[in-house]
UniProtKB/TrEMBL annotation:
Reaction catalysed by this enzyme: Release of an N-terminal amino acid, preferentially leucine, but not glutamic or aspartic acids; Release of an N-terminal amino acid, Xaa-|-Yaa-, in which Xaa is preferably Leu, but may be other amino acids including Pro although not Arg or Lys, and Yaa may be Pro. Amino acid amides and methyl esters are also readily hydrolyzed, but rates on arylamides are exceedingly low
Keywords recorded for this protein, A-Z: Aminopeptidase, Cytoplasm, Hydrolase, Manganese, Metal-binding, Protease
Main subcellular localisation: cytoplasm
Gene Ontology cellular-component annotations: cytoplasm
EC number of the protein: 3.4.11.1, 3.4.11.10
Transmembrane helix is among the record's keywords: no
Residue numbers binding Mn(2+) 2: K268, D273, D291, E352
Enzyme class: hydrolase
Cofactor comment text: Binds 2 manganese ions per subunit.
Protein name: Probable cytosol aminopeptidase
Lineage, top ranks: Bacteria, Bacteria division TA06
Length: 500
């Protein structure tokens, strides 16, 4: 979808569909919506008085203009309660409007910016939120669908209309930024949505390299021979049961000077997780193609950082593997030494994500990262604790934790802090090695994080568990059913705001 900012009056702008808004409880709309209402002879106010619309977030109501204004139809979208309104609500309102426009077969539409008036959001941020919500909502993954499904109506052109000339430049900046962010997040969604027979570790690395060349980021891919020679045996141990060889994807972006610190961000890239020898139950296993959601989020975030020219030094490390129970697979009871850190006793081969992340964190440190973040679809325990819309954050550094959590008002990606008491290490004690790869059922999300902490060398570090957040089982926020790209915008804003 192409998004353009145009100066004009909504009551004189010609479009097949004009989208305006109002807050919950409003009976007589003002601003641009009020001007449209007046031009339509009070039709919107009459509908509100009749209870046809409350203005709840995402609620829509359609009006035919009958030639009273150049726009053929007007769609009013609800913004919800004014006191709860922010960028996430602006995105959700824009998404609802796009989905309604698709149902109306509108290939072209015009909209006002959501939240730039009494919504209280700065003009550039409001335009960014409106554009991102629209672009994320317009995303579809239908390449394997029949042709008739691919030809379902979609909005191809969206005009953002603003009457005041003084706001146009800010709106254009917001839209330009939104286009980069939506491109990166939709790339992450593509990577997750692909089936594992197409999205192998090799294919994943190729896609990231191709996107990296567009974004201006340096992308290096290491093959299985390099991984073994390097001594990344935790990574290799997970990968060796599959016929699909692993890859280690390294994204490097130097946006600051030589003396500026490096941030290392590691993303779990398990292209499909069968559980290995500790085989998963078959119910729902098809969803395990999304077990590389953390790696996809890191790829999207790093490429957005590069494309936006952020003045930071940042490394992205993505170990890409298949976890399969082939003849060469590692077994429970094996003891493995990785690139750094303690020897690991393998208790469950289904606790594989932490193994590849451990080598990834060690390598990020080796490359000079002084601050570490990792993101992964790591544990079912985090889903039991927090559900499918909130990710757990486990941190050893308050500054990292605060910066990551403070992004929720801008991204809508909610994080919740989890305890990291040293007592949890008792569950990881091994009689045969330095540490076990799982601490049992109790506090499983926390012990997984405590395992990873052993490979950070006490560097400032935060771990984000996004299990069940990488895929939506039904539409919500700006997302259709399928991959969300959760975490991508959180990581981007974290890097932008990081001061070392």
């Amino acid at each position: 979808m192409k998004v353009e900012v145009k100066q004009g009056d909504v009551t004189s702008f010609a479009s097949p569909l004009l989208m305006v808004n109002l807050f919950k409880g409003v009976k007589h709309p003002g601003g641009a919506t009020g001007a449209v209402d007046q031009a339509l002879g009070g039709a919107i106010s009459k509908a509100l008085a009749a209870g046809e619309m409350e203005g709840k977030l995402g609620e829509t109501l359609l009006f035919h203009t009958d030639g009273k204004i150049p726009a053929e139809r007007v769609l009013v979208v609800g913004l919800g309660e004014a006191e709860k309104f922010g960028p996430e609500e602006a995105r959700r309102a824009a998404a609802s409007a796009i989905w309604a426009a698709e149902k109306l077969s509108a290939k072209e539409a015009a909209t006002i910016v959501h939240g730039a008036g009494i919504g209280g959001i700065q003009p550039q941020s409001a335009a960014e939120a409106t554009a991102i919500g629209s672009l994320l909502a317009a995303y579809r993954f239908d390449k394997y669908k029949e042709e008739k499904e691919q030809q379902k109506p979609r909005v191809e052109n969206l005009a953002i209309i603003e009457r005041e000339a003084a706001k146009i430049a800010s709106f254009k900046k917001g839209v330009k930024r939104a286009e980069v962010i939506a491109w990166a997040q939709n790339l992450a969604r593509d990577l997750v949505n692909e089936p594992s027979n197409a999205m192998t570790p090799v294919e994943f690395s190729k896609r990231v390299q191709e996107a990296g060349s567009q974004a201006g980021a340096e992308v290096t891919v290491h093959d299985e021979a390099w991984i073994q020679e390097k001594g990344m045996s935790l990574l290799w141990g997970v990968a060796k049961g599959s016929e699909h060889p692993p890859r280690l994807v390294v994204i490097r972006y130097k946006g600051a000077g030589d003396k500026a610190p490096w941030i290392g961000i590691v993303g779990k890239g398990v292209m499909f997780d069968s559980g290995g020898i500790s085989l998963k139950k078959p119910q729902g296993m098809e969803g395990m193609k999304g077990d590389m959601g953390g790696g996809a989020a890191v790829a999207g975030a790093l490429l957005a950082v590069a494309k936006l020219g952020v003045k930071r030094n940042v490394l992205g490390i993505i170990p890409a593997v298949m976890n399969s129970p082939g003849g060469g697979a590692q077994n429970p009871g094996d003891i493995v030494c990785g690139l750094d850190g303690p020897a690991v006793e393998i208790i469950s081969t289904d606790a594989e994500g932490r193994l590849i992340l451990a080598d990834g964190l060690s390598y990020a440190r080796e490359l000079g990262a002084g601050y570490l973040v990792d993101i992964a679809t790591l544990t079912g325990a985090s889903v039991v604790a927090l559900g499918t819309k909130v990710a757990g954050i486990f941190a050893t550094d308050e500054k990292l934790e605060k910066l990551l959590m403070d992004n929720v008002s801008q991204t809508g990606e909610r994080l919740w802090p989890m305890p990291m008491f040293d007592e949890y290490n008792k569950q990881l004690e091994s009689t045969a090695a330095g540490i076990k790869n799982t601490g049992g059922r109790d506090a499983g999300a926390i012990t997984a994080a405590k395992f990873l902490e052993h490979f950070t060398d006490k560097k400032p570090w935060a771990h984000i568990d996004i299990a069940a957040k990488e895929m939506a089982d039904k539409p919500y926020s700006c997302y259709r059913k399928g991959a969300t790209g959760f975490g991508m915008r959180t990581l981007l804003r974290f890097v932008e705001r990081w001061e070392g």
